[in-house]
Automatic annotation (TrEMBL):
Pfam families: Choline_kinase. Keywords: Lipid biosynthesis, Lipid metabolism, Phospholipid biosynthesis, Phospholipid metabolism. Belongs to the choline/ethanolamine kinase family. It is an enzyme of class 2 (transferase). InterPro entries: Kinase-like_dom_sf. GO terms for cellular component: cytoplasm. It comes from Manduca sexta. GO terms for molecular function: ethanolamine kinase activity. Its EC number is 2.7.1.82. Pathway: Phospholipid metabolism; phosphatidylethanolamine biosynthesis; phosphatidylethanolamine from ethanolamine: step 1/3. GO terms for biological process: phosphatidylethanolamine biosynthetic process. The keyword Lipid biosynthesis applies. The lineage of its organism: Eukaryota, Metazoa, Ecdysozoa, Arthropoda, Hexapoda. This is ethanolamine kinase.
Length: 197
């Protein structure tokens, strides 16, 4: 899903944006659609090496889409708009990325889960997924894949935000959100790419 969806969003980006101020903001922050396409191909060529299994994934598992019923002791998921087959590590990475906040004013990367939290979470996930206790190697492998796929999550939602920046009537600064997500991508990519190679 992730590669097709990013490609779809890139194809929806206007050239140029309909309002000159939007185009100027886009150019100042991202250069051009061509530059983003080149970055997309670079990201894809690196992440296909991770060998994360393909699973049926929610792909938008922010905390607001996880409903806990304390009385019944159940957890339900909502908002399956992006549900599709995707890398297992992408869905987990996207979930962890969403811990930092949903709106521009609330984003706090100090809320990104620690390695200990992620390892514990992944161990529980793999116990259910494998119907067996995972080995420490299995847990560490998925943890590493999740760190890599966090890049794809930032890139996907950054490009999605740029599409919304042009098309949405919602009172939200999608341009700023795109800057936040894509800046985080660029901030992390060199470290993560070195680990893949």
């Amino acid at each position: 899903m992730v590669w097709n969806k990013i490609d779809q969003f890139l194809n929806l980006l206007p050239q140029p944006f309909s309002i000159e101020a939007k185009q100027e903001r886009f150019t100042n922050n991202f250069g051009s659609v061509t530059k983003l396409r080149i970055e997309f191909e670079r990201l894809k060529s690196h992440l296909i090496k991770t060998q994360s299994p393909i699973v049926f994934a929610h792909n938008d598992l922010l905390l607001g889409n996880v409903i806990y019923n304390k009385d019944a002791g159940t957890i339900s998921f909502i908002d399956y708009e992006y549900a599709s087959y995707n890398y297992q590590a992408f869905d987990i990475a996207n979930h962890f990325n969403e811990f930092v906040g949903l709106s521009i004013g609330d984003i706090d990367y100090n809320k990104y889960p620690s390695k200990d939290f992620q390892v514990s979470w992944i161990k529980e996930y793999l116990t259910e997924y494998l119907s067996a206790t995972p080995t420490p190697h299995d847990v560490e492998k998925v943890y590493t894949e999740v760190q890599h796929h966090s890049l794809a999550s930032h890139f996907l939602w950054g490009i999605w935000s740029l599409v919304q920046y042009e098309l949405s009537d919602i009172d939200f600064d999608f341009g700023r959100y795109a800057v936040i997500r894509l800046n985080r991508y660029y901030e992390l990519k060199n470290k993560v790419f070195k680990e893949i190679l």
